[in-house]
Amino acid sequence: MRNGIDTVEISRIEKLLGDLDEVALRDFFSEEELLDAGSRAGAARAQKLAARFAAKEACCKLFPREICLGTIEPYDFSVSRDGYGEPGIIPSERALAVMNRHRVSRLSLSMTHTDTSATAIATIEPRVVPVPWYGKFLYRFLPLRRRVVMENLERVFGETLTNAQIEEIAQGFYAHFVKFFGEVIALPFKSGARRESLVRIEGGEHLTTALEKGRGVLLLTGHFGSWEVSTIAGISQFREYHGRFHFIRRPLKPRWLNDFVMRRFHKAGFGTLSKAGSLDEILDLLEQNQIVVSIFDQSTGNSYGIPSEFFGHPAYTFKSLAVLAQFTGAPVIPSSSWREPDGTHVLLFEKPVEIVTEGRTRDIISMNTKRFNEVIERIILRHPEQWIWMHRRWKKRSRKDR
Q: How many whole angstroms separate alpha carbon 46 and alpha carbon 52?
């Protein structure tokens, strides 16, 4: 296990407290940290805040590359105490994405101080995902598109993980797909009550609040977890929204598989829209305060997309979602799903993405598309073994396609 250690002189924090007011201190400490340290000036407060500042710096030393790139800062880590008084680290959304990319489960913390200095030690607790035998077997002996899977994983994790860790994610991915197909086949034979018990909804209030604006909702999602199961068994729990979800989809190949999926979707009360030629229909649906689902994690050609960064590498990305968000004002709600260790699923709706609205139209579309890709990145990093690594997300394009 790796450790990050830092020591801060108490006098340094005393000077900071003397130079800054309470509002400015929030650039360095969270509100909880300031409350925990107390409001009365004196040595005790300076000692507590010095220990917390040392904890932030100790966490940063665990991720030197990201600190150099400006991906994270000390403020992205805050100290919180549990009910027993034991300190722990609460990462920001940015820091959590970095931790996930390094396969860090959590950061444990130890703090102490003397009359003159405070010291903190942050320790990485690695994330280990048990891989069943059939995941290892498929990876070794029936490796469907393994070269693509490993190339994609290397792009994302090559600078943060060992080869053995990357191989473990690949094996977990193959195991996930075995479970995925089993769940898809078994779903029609389950009762309505059993289906509902399979999926837990989180963040449904974000979807409800967004619909109250009356502009429709653009749902930002991708191929996460058992997406067919979580979609059919999860969204069906929103009975008040039956018939209001409309998925923008590409036809699947072979045709029989596409027909099978479409029958399931239509039976569940979902509408489907083609990725090509459906703009007028989408605008009509948003005007009717409907929910339009954009599956955003696939590669596209230059006719429908723009070059954007995905995990630090250029990847053509659909521009339609950014265009719709800009010109309709419809909130963009990220949605994802994943399988829990007990075999149940979680369907999560998050807060709306903050949309850029000022500037040249081309720049606005580019910046918002980049934000959407960053959301997809964070979702993938939470459960990387449950994303479609066999998809060619970073396609090489000929000159005529650029």
A: 10
Q: By percentage, how much of the chain surpasses pLDDT 90?
A: 72
| pLDDT exceeds cutoff 90 at 275 | no
Domains of the chain with bracketed CATH: 3-126 (3.90.470.20), 133-178 (no CATH), 191-401 (3.40.1130)
Tokens of 342: 């007990």
Q: Write out pLDDT tens, residues 85-118.
A: 899 999 999 999 999 999 999 999 999 999 899 9
Which sign, positive or negative, has the C-alpha torsion 226, 232, 237, 242? positive
Does residue 104 contact residue 130 with C-beta atoms inside 8 Å? no
Q: Closest by alpha carbon to 321, among 393, 251, 371?
A: 371
Instruction: Express each pLDDT in 289-313 by its tens digit.
Output: 999 999 999 988 777 789 999 999 9
Please count the other Cβ atoms lying within 10 Å of the Cβ belonging to residue 178.
14
- Asked if the peptide bond before residue 254 counts as cis, ω within 30 degrees of 0, the response is yes
pTM, 2 dp? 0.91
39 burial via Cβ count (<10 Å: 0-12, 13-18, 19+)? exposed
For the residues 231-242, what does the mean pLDDT come to? 88
Q: Is 140 exposed, middle or buried (0-12, 13-18, 19+ CB in 10 A)?
A: exposed
d(CA 76, CA 160): 19
Check: CB of residue 306 under 8 Å from CB of residue 316.
Answer: yes
CB contact at 8 A, 349 and 203: yes
Question: Longest C-alpha distance within the chain, in Å?
Answer: 74
